[in-house]
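task queued by scheduler; priority normal; single chain, no ligands, no partner chains; default sampling; output format set to C-alpha coordinates
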Amino acid sequence: MENFSDRTARFFARHGFETAETLDRESLVSAFLSEMDKGLSHEPSSLRMIPAYVRLGGKVSDRDAAVVLDAGGTNFRSALVSGRGEIKDRLNRPMPGTRGEVGKAEFYAAFAEEVRRLRGRATVSRIGWCFSYTCEATPDLDARLLEWSKNIRAPSIVGDFVGRELVYRIGKGSVAIVNDTVATLLAGKSKEGTREYGSYIGFILGTGTNAAYVEPSLGGMVVNSESGAFDKIAQSDFDRAADAKNERPGTFVFEKMIAGAYLGNVGLALLQTAGAEGFFSSGTASALNEVSRLETIDLDDFASGRVRGDRENPLAAVFADSGEAATARELVFPVFARAAVLSAAQLAAFAVKSESGRDQARPVAICADGSTYYKTRTVSFPDIVRMELDRLLTSARGIHYEILPQIDDAPMVGAAIVALQTE
Protein backbone atom coordinates (compact mmCIF):
# COMPACT_ATOMS: atom_id res chain seq x y z
CA MET A 1 0.00 0.00 0.00
CA GLU A 2 2.79 2.43 0.95
CA ASN A 3 6.23 2.92 -0.50
CA PHE A 4 8.34 5.64 1.09
CA SER A 5 11.99 6.24 1.94
CA ASP A 6 13.85 4.99 5.00
CA ARG A 7 14.22 8.57 6.18
CA THR A 8 10.46 9.05 6.08
CA ALA A 9 9.90 5.74 7.89
CA ARG A 10 12.28 6.82 10.66
CA PHE A 11 10.51 10.18 10.87
CA PHE A 12 7.15 8.48 11.39
CA ALA A 13 8.54 6.07 13.97
CA ARG A 14 10.23 8.88 15.88
CA HIS A 15 6.91 10.67 16.26
CA GLY A 16 4.78 7.63 17.01
CA PHE A 17 2.86 7.71 13.73
CA GLU A 18 1.56 4.24 12.88
CA THR A 19 1.31 3.92 9.12
CA ALA A 20 -1.06 1.62 7.26
CA GLU A 21 1.79 -0.90 7.07
CA THR A 22 2.66 -0.87 10.76
CA LEU A 23 -0.84 -0.71 12.32
CA ASP A 24 -1.80 -3.77 14.38
CA ARG A 25 -5.28 -4.43 13.01
CA GLU A 26 -6.07 -7.37 15.26
CA SER A 27 -5.23 -5.46 18.43
CA LEU A 28 -7.44 -2.62 17.28
CA VAL A 29 -10.37 -4.95 16.57
CA SER A 30 -9.95 -6.53 19.99
CA ALA A 31 -9.86 -3.12 21.67
CA PHE A 32 -13.07 -2.09 19.91
CA LEU A 33 -14.80 -5.31 20.96
CA SER A 34 -13.71 -4.82 24.57
CA GLU A 35 -15.00 -1.25 24.65
CA MET A 36 -18.31 -2.36 23.09
CA ASP A 37 -18.80 -5.02 25.74
CA LYS A 38 -18.05 -2.54 28.52
CA GLY A 39 -20.41 0.04 27.09
CA LEU A 40 -23.24 -2.48 26.78
CA SER A 41 -22.63 -3.56 30.39
CA HIS A 42 -22.73 0.08 31.59
CA GLU A 43 -19.09 -0.08 32.64
CA PRO A 44 -16.71 2.82 31.97
CA SER A 45 -16.05 2.86 28.21
CA SER A 46 -15.15 5.30 25.49
CA LEU A 47 -18.08 3.91 23.45
CA ARG A 48 -21.51 5.05 24.63
CA MET A 49 -23.41 2.14 22.98
CA ILE A 50 -26.76 3.94 22.95
CA PRO A 51 -29.84 1.74 22.27
CA ALA A 52 -31.82 3.23 19.38
CA TYR A 53 -34.99 1.27 20.22
CA VAL A 54 -35.23 0.27 16.57
CA ARG A 55 -35.35 -3.31 15.34
CA LEU A 56 -35.26 -4.60 11.79
CA GLY A 57 -37.83 -7.37 11.96
CA GLY A 58 -40.76 -5.31 10.76
CA LYS A 59 -42.17 -5.01 7.26
CA VAL A 60 -41.83 -1.94 5.08
CA SER A 61 -44.34 -1.37 2.30
CA ASP A 62 -42.88 -0.25 -1.01
CA ARG A 63 -46.15 1.49 -1.81
CA ASP A 64 -46.27 3.74 1.24
CA ALA A 65 -44.56 7.10 1.72
CA ALA A 66 -43.88 9.15 4.83
CA VAL A 67 -43.08 12.75 5.58
CA VAL A 68 -39.37 12.92 6.42
CA LEU A 69 -37.38 15.67 8.12
CA ASP A 70 -33.58 15.64 8.18
CA ALA A 71 -31.87 18.03 10.60
CA GLY A 72 -28.19 17.85 11.34
CA GLY A 73 -26.29 20.78 9.92
CA THR A 74 -26.73 24.35 8.78
CA ASN A 75 -29.76 23.33 6.73
CA PHE A 76 -32.60 20.89 7.22
CA ARG A 77 -34.36 18.99 4.48
CA SER A 78 -37.91 17.79 4.11
CA ALA A 79 -39.50 15.46 1.59
CA LEU A 80 -41.89 12.61 0.92
CA VAL A 81 -39.92 9.36 0.97
CA SER A 82 -41.20 5.92 -0.03
CA GLY A 83 -40.23 2.49 1.27
CA ARG A 84 -38.24 2.04 -1.95
CA GLY A 85 -36.22 5.14 -1.15
CA GLU A 86 -37.88 7.41 -3.74
CA ILE A 87 -37.70 11.05 -2.68
CA LYS A 88 -40.24 13.61 -3.86
CA ASP A 89 -41.01 17.27 -3.15
CA ARG A 90 -37.70 17.85 -1.41
CA LEU A 91 -37.04 21.28 0.07
CA ASN A 92 -33.99 22.67 1.87
CA ARG A 93 -34.38 25.34 4.52
CA PRO A 94 -31.98 27.00 6.96
CA MET A 95 -31.76 25.13 10.24
CA PRO A 96 -33.46 27.23 12.92
CA GLY A 97 -30.80 28.78 15.13
CA THR A 98 -28.10 29.11 12.47
CA ARG A 99 -28.91 32.73 11.64
CA GLY A 100 -29.43 34.01 15.14
CA GLU A 101 -30.88 32.71 18.37
CA VAL A 102 -34.45 31.37 18.22
CA GLY A 103 -37.00 30.41 20.85
CA LYS A 104 -39.32 27.41 21.02
CA ALA A 105 -42.09 28.87 18.88
CA GLU A 106 -39.82 29.85 15.98
CA PHE A 107 -37.79 26.65 16.19
CA TYR A 108 -40.68 24.19 15.94
CA ALA A 109 -42.67 26.36 13.53
CA ALA A 110 -40.14 25.74 10.77
CA PHE A 111 -40.54 21.96 11.03
CA ALA A 112 -44.30 22.08 11.54
CA GLU A 113 -44.66 24.14 8.37
CA GLU A 114 -42.89 21.46 6.35
CA VAL A 115 -45.05 18.71 7.85
CA ARG A 116 -48.18 20.63 6.85
CA ARG A 117 -46.79 21.14 3.33
CA LEU A 118 -46.28 17.42 2.79
CA ARG A 119 -48.73 15.62 5.06
CA GLY A 120 -51.66 15.51 2.61
CA ARG A 121 -49.65 13.32 0.22
CA ALA A 122 -48.22 10.91 2.80
CA THR A 123 -49.87 7.49 3.16
CA VAL A 124 -48.93 7.09 6.84
CA SER A 125 -49.38 9.54 9.70
CA ARG A 126 -46.02 8.79 11.30
CA ILE A 127 -43.23 11.24 10.52
CA GLY A 128 -39.63 10.13 10.15
CA TRP A 129 -37.14 12.59 11.62
CA CYS A 130 -33.38 12.23 11.27
CA PHE A 131 -32.19 14.42 14.12
CA SER A 132 -28.40 14.33 14.32
CA TYR A 133 -27.56 16.09 17.54
CA THR A 134 -26.67 14.71 20.96
CA CYS A 135 -29.86 13.14 22.26
CA GLU A 136 -31.14 10.48 24.62
CA ALA A 137 -33.29 8.05 22.65
CA THR A 138 -36.53 6.80 24.20
CA PRO A 139 -38.42 3.52 23.68
CA ASP A 140 -41.25 5.35 21.86
CA LEU A 141 -38.66 6.70 19.36
CA ASP A 142 -38.66 10.21 20.71
CA ALA A 143 -35.40 11.98 21.55
CA ARG A 144 -34.50 14.32 24.40
CA LEU A 145 -31.99 16.91 23.28
CA LEU A 146 -28.95 16.95 25.56
CA GLU A 147 -26.84 19.59 23.86
CA TRP A 148 -26.45 21.43 20.58
CA SER A 149 -23.49 21.22 18.25
CA LYS A 150 -22.64 22.88 14.93
CA ASN A 151 -23.26 26.33 16.37
CA ILE A 152 -27.05 26.02 16.65
CA ARG A 153 -28.42 28.80 18.87
CA ALA A 154 -31.67 27.58 20.37
CA PRO A 155 -30.94 27.12 24.09
CA SER A 156 -34.59 26.82 25.14
CA ILE A 157 -34.86 23.54 23.16
CA VAL A 158 -32.21 21.75 25.23
CA GLY A 159 -33.98 19.21 27.42
CA ASP A 160 -37.01 18.97 25.12
CA PHE A 161 -38.46 15.73 23.83
CA VAL A 162 -38.41 17.14 20.33
CA GLY A 163 -40.81 14.65 18.76
CA ARG A 164 -43.44 15.29 21.41
CA GLU A 165 -43.06 19.04 20.96
CA LEU A 166 -43.50 18.77 17.20
CA VAL A 167 -46.64 16.61 17.48
CA TYR A 168 -48.12 19.16 19.90
CA ARG A 169 -47.75 21.78 17.18
CA ILE A 170 -49.03 19.76 14.23
CA GLY A 171 -51.99 18.39 16.17
CA LYS A 172 -51.93 14.73 15.14
CA GLY A 173 -49.74 11.83 14.11
CA SER A 174 -46.52 10.60 15.69
CA VAL A 175 -42.80 11.07 15.13
CA ALA A 176 -40.05 8.44 14.90
CA ILE A 177 -36.61 9.94 15.52
CA VAL A 178 -33.22 8.43 14.68
CA ASN A 179 -29.78 9.94 14.25
CA ASP A 180 -27.96 9.93 10.91
CA THR A 181 -25.89 6.81 11.58
CA VAL A 182 -28.87 4.70 12.62
CA ALA A 183 -30.77 6.09 9.64
CA THR A 184 -27.92 5.13 7.31
CA LEU A 185 -28.06 1.57 8.65
CA LEU A 186 -31.81 1.48 8.05
CA ALA A 187 -31.38 2.81 4.51
CA GLY A 188 -29.73 -0.48 3.61
CA LYS A 189 -32.99 -2.26 4.30
CA SER A 190 -34.67 -0.30 1.50
CA LYS A 191 -32.26 -1.89 -1.00
CA GLU A 192 -32.43 -5.50 0.11
CA GLY A 193 -35.04 -6.65 -2.45
CA THR A 194 -34.84 -10.42 -2.70
CA ARG A 195 -31.36 -10.39 -1.14
CA GLU A 196 -31.30 -11.52 2.48
CA TYR A 197 -28.73 -10.13 4.88
CA GLY A 198 -27.73 -11.55 8.22
CA SER A 199 -27.28 -8.14 9.82
CA TYR A 200 -26.61 -4.49 9.05
CA ILE A 201 -23.98 -1.87 9.87
CA GLY A 202 -24.40 1.85 9.29
CA PHE A 203 -21.17 3.82 8.84
CA ILE A 204 -20.65 7.53 8.34
CA LEU A 205 -17.30 9.07 7.49
CA GLY A 206 -17.64 12.70 6.55
CA THR A 207 -16.95 15.74 8.69
CA GLY A 208 -17.15 13.33 11.65
CA THR A 209 -17.58 9.59 11.99
CA ASN A 210 -19.83 7.07 13.72
CA ALA A 211 -21.06 3.50 13.38
CA ALA A 212 -24.26 1.70 14.33
CA TYR A 213 -24.98 -2.02 14.25
CA VAL A 214 -27.55 -4.63 15.31
CA GLU A 215 -26.84 -6.09 18.76
CA PRO A 216 -27.95 -9.74 19.21
CA SER A 217 -27.99 -9.63 23.03
CA LEU A 218 -30.60 -6.85 22.90
CA GLY A 219 -32.99 -8.83 20.75
CA GLY A 220 -31.75 -7.42 17.48
CA MET A 221 -31.92 -3.78 18.54
CA VAL A 222 -29.89 -1.20 16.64
CA VAL A 223 -27.17 0.38 18.80
CA ASN A 224 -25.55 3.73 18.14
CA SER A 225 -21.95 3.31 19.30
CA GLU A 226 -20.69 6.91 18.99
CA SER A 227 -17.52 5.28 17.70
CA GLY A 228 -15.72 8.56 17.06
CA ALA A 229 -15.11 8.75 20.81
CA PHE A 230 -13.09 5.49 20.86
CA ASP A 231 -9.82 6.25 22.65
CA LYS A 232 -7.94 2.95 22.98
CA ILE A 233 -5.48 3.93 20.30
CA ALA A 234 -2.14 5.68 20.42
CA GLN A 235 -1.99 9.20 19.02
CA SER A 236 1.08 10.41 17.22
CA ASP A 237 2.77 13.74 17.91
CA PHE A 238 0.97 15.07 14.83
CA ASP A 239 -2.44 13.96 16.12
CA ARG A 240 -1.82 15.62 19.47
CA ALA A 241 -0.66 18.85 17.85
CA ALA A 242 -3.77 18.97 15.64
CA ASP A 243 -6.00 18.05 18.58
CA ALA A 244 -4.66 20.98 20.59
CA LYS A 245 -6.28 23.34 18.06
CA ASN A 246 -9.76 22.00 18.78
CA GLU A 247 -12.24 23.41 21.24
CA ARG A 248 -12.35 20.11 23.15
CA PRO A 249 -8.86 18.58 23.03
CA GLY A 250 -8.59 15.01 24.24
CA THR A 251 -12.12 14.09 23.17
CA PHE A 252 -13.27 12.05 20.16
CA VAL A 253 -9.75 10.70 19.68
CA PHE A 254 -10.62 8.18 16.95
CA GLU A 255 -12.73 10.65 14.98
CA LYS A 256 -9.83 13.08 14.91
CA MET A 257 -7.64 10.44 13.26
CA ILE A 258 -9.99 9.57 10.40
CA ALA A 259 -12.63 12.26 9.76
CA GLY A 260 -12.76 15.19 7.39
CA ALA A 261 -12.93 17.92 10.02
CA TYR A 262 -9.47 16.98 11.29
CA LEU A 263 -7.24 15.28 8.71
CA GLY A 264 -6.14 18.60 7.21
CA ASN A 265 -4.69 19.79 10.49
CA VAL A 266 -3.05 16.41 11.16
CA GLY A 267 -1.32 16.72 7.80
CA LEU A 268 -0.34 20.32 8.51
CA ALA A 269 1.20 19.39 11.87
CA LEU A 270 3.12 16.59 10.14
CA LEU A 271 4.47 18.92 7.45
CA GLN A 272 5.41 21.62 9.95
CA THR A 273 7.31 19.06 12.04
CA ALA A 274 9.04 17.77 8.91
CA GLY A 275 10.01 21.33 8.04
CA ALA A 276 11.55 21.81 11.47
CA GLU A 277 13.57 18.62 10.97
CA GLY A 278 15.10 19.61 7.65
CA PHE A 279 12.89 17.92 5.06
CA PHE A 280 12.38 21.28 3.33
CA SER A 281 14.32 24.49 2.81
CA SER A 282 14.25 27.09 5.57
CA GLY A 283 12.03 29.32 3.43
CA THR A 284 9.50 26.57 2.89
CA ALA A 285 9.56 25.61 6.57
CA SER A 286 8.95 29.23 7.52
CA ALA A 287 6.06 29.52 5.06
CA LEU A 288 4.50 26.34 6.47
CA ASN A 289 4.59 27.80 9.96
CA GLU A 290 2.56 30.77 8.72
CA VAL A 291 -0.35 28.41 7.90
CA SER A 292 -2.46 28.21 11.05
CA ARG A 293 -5.12 25.78 9.86
CA LEU A 294 -5.61 23.53 6.85
CA GLU A 295 -8.87 22.20 5.48
CA THR A 296 -8.89 18.50 4.63
CA ILE A 297 -10.10 19.29 1.12
CA ASP A 298 -6.91 21.31 0.57
CA LEU A 299 -4.64 18.58 1.93
CA ASP A 300 -6.42 16.01 -0.27
CA ASP A 301 -6.26 18.20 -3.37
CA PHE A 302 -2.54 18.83 -2.83
CA ALA A 303 -1.68 15.19 -2.13
CA SER A 304 -3.69 13.93 -5.12
CA GLY A 305 -2.48 16.64 -7.51
CA ARG A 306 -5.90 18.10 -8.05
CA VAL A 307 -6.16 21.80 -8.94
CA ARG A 308 -9.45 23.61 -8.34
CA GLY A 309 -10.44 26.81 -10.04
CA ASP A 310 -12.81 27.86 -7.27
CA ARG A 311 -10.39 28.02 -4.32
CA GLU A 312 -6.76 28.79 -3.54
CA ASN A 313 -4.84 25.99 -1.90
CA PRO A 314 -2.42 27.32 0.74
CA LEU A 315 -0.06 24.39 0.17
CA ALA A 316 0.31 25.21 -3.53
CA ALA A 317 2.00 28.51 -2.67
CA VAL A 318 4.18 26.96 0.04
CA PHE A 319 5.47 24.15 -2.19
CA ALA A 320 6.34 26.02 -5.37
CA ASP A 321 9.41 23.81 -5.80
CA SER A 322 8.40 20.55 -7.50
CA GLY A 323 10.96 18.46 -5.59
CA GLU A 324 9.75 19.71 -2.22
CA ALA A 325 6.15 19.22 -3.31
CA ALA A 326 6.92 15.57 -4.12
CA THR A 327 8.49 15.11 -0.69
CA ALA A 328 5.47 16.67 0.99
CA ARG A 329 3.09 14.39 -0.90
CA GLU A 330 5.10 11.36 0.19
CA LEU A 331 4.79 12.54 3.79
CA VAL A 332 1.05 13.21 3.86
CA PHE A 333 -0.14 10.24 1.80
CA PRO A 334 0.01 7.98 4.90
CA VAL A 335 -2.39 10.28 6.76
CA PHE A 336 -5.16 9.23 4.38
CA ALA A 337 -4.04 5.61 4.07
CA ARG A 338 -4.00 5.24 7.86
CA ALA A 339 -7.52 6.70 8.09
CA ALA A 340 -8.84 4.16 5.59
CA VAL A 341 -7.30 1.22 7.47
CA LEU A 342 -8.62 2.48 10.81
CA SER A 343 -12.08 2.78 9.24
CA ALA A 344 -11.91 -0.84 8.11
CA ALA A 345 -10.74 -2.07 11.52
CA GLN A 346 -13.71 -0.54 13.29
CA LEU A 347 -16.11 -1.97 10.70
CA ALA A 348 -14.55 -5.39 11.19
CA ALA A 349 -15.17 -5.13 14.93
CA PHE A 350 -18.83 -4.27 14.44
CA ALA A 351 -19.27 -7.12 11.99
CA VAL A 352 -17.76 -9.54 14.54
CA LYS A 353 -19.98 -8.13 17.29
CA SER A 354 -23.09 -8.64 15.16
CA GLU A 355 -22.50 -12.43 15.36
CA SER A 356 -23.60 -12.78 11.75
CA GLY A 357 -22.19 -13.40 8.29
CA ARG A 358 -21.11 -17.02 8.74
CA ASP A 359 -23.55 -18.01 6.01
CA GLN A 360 -22.27 -16.70 2.68
CA ALA A 361 -25.86 -16.39 1.46
CA ARG A 362 -26.65 -14.00 4.33
CA PRO A 363 -23.69 -11.62 4.65
CA VAL A 364 -23.42 -8.60 6.90
CA ALA A 365 -24.60 -5.56 4.92
CA ILE A 366 -22.56 -2.38 5.37
CA CYS A 367 -24.23 0.86 4.35
CA ALA A 368 -21.67 3.67 4.16
CA ASP A 369 -22.25 7.39 3.79
CA GLY A 370 -20.15 10.53 3.98
CA SER A 371 -17.96 12.76 1.84
CA THR A 372 -14.62 11.65 3.30
CA TYR A 373 -15.40 8.02 2.52
CA TYR A 374 -16.61 8.59 -1.04
CA LYS A 375 -14.85 11.75 -2.23
CA THR A 376 -11.27 11.52 -0.95
CA ARG A 377 -8.94 11.38 -3.95
CA THR A 378 -5.51 10.74 -2.41
CA VAL A 379 -6.56 7.17 -1.60
CA SER A 380 -9.74 5.24 -2.35
CA PHE A 381 -11.41 4.57 0.98
CA PRO A 382 -13.87 2.04 -0.54
CA ASP A 383 -11.06 0.03 -2.16
CA ILE A 384 -8.85 -0.02 0.94
CA VAL A 385 -11.78 -0.87 3.23
CA ARG A 386 -12.76 -3.83 1.02
CA MET A 387 -9.20 -5.12 0.90
CA GLU A 388 -8.85 -4.86 4.67
CA LEU A 389 -12.25 -6.46 5.39
CA ASP A 390 -11.43 -9.33 3.08
CA ARG A 391 -8.40 -9.95 5.28
CA LEU A 392 -9.93 -9.26 8.70
CA LEU A 393 -13.34 -10.85 8.17
CA THR A 394 -13.53 -13.28 5.26
CA SER A 395 -10.03 -14.78 5.41
CA ALA A 396 -9.34 -14.59 9.14
CA ARG A 397 -12.80 -15.30 10.56
CA GLY A 398 -15.01 -16.76 7.85
CA ILE A 399 -17.38 -13.80 8.14
CA HIS A 400 -18.96 -12.70 4.89
CA TYR A 401 -19.93 -9.11 4.26
CA GLU A 402 -21.22 -6.91 1.47
CA ILE A 403 -20.69 -3.17 1.15
CA LEU A 404 -23.89 -1.87 -0.41
CA PRO A 405 -23.77 0.54 -3.35
CA GLN A 406 -23.89 4.15 -2.21
CA ILE A 407 -27.44 5.19 -1.34
CA ASP A 408 -28.23 8.79 -2.16
CA ASP A 409 -29.66 10.68 0.81
CA ALA A 410 -29.24 7.64 3.05
CA PRO A 411 -30.26 9.47 6.27
CA MET A 412 -33.56 10.56 4.71
CA VAL A 413 -34.25 7.08 3.37
CA GLY A 414 -33.50 5.53 6.75
CA ALA A 415 -35.78 7.97 8.55
CA ALA A 416 -38.56 6.93 6.18
CA ILE A 417 -37.90 3.25 6.88
CA VAL A 418 -38.36 3.69 10.63
CA ALA A 419 -41.55 5.69 10.06
CA LEU A 420 -42.99 3.08 7.66
CA GLN A 421 -41.91 -0.07 9.47
CA THR A 422 -44.70 -2.17 10.96
CA GLU A 423 -44.57 -5.24 13.20
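post-processing summary
- The first strand starts at residue 50 and ends at 55.
- The chain has a mean pLDDT of 93.
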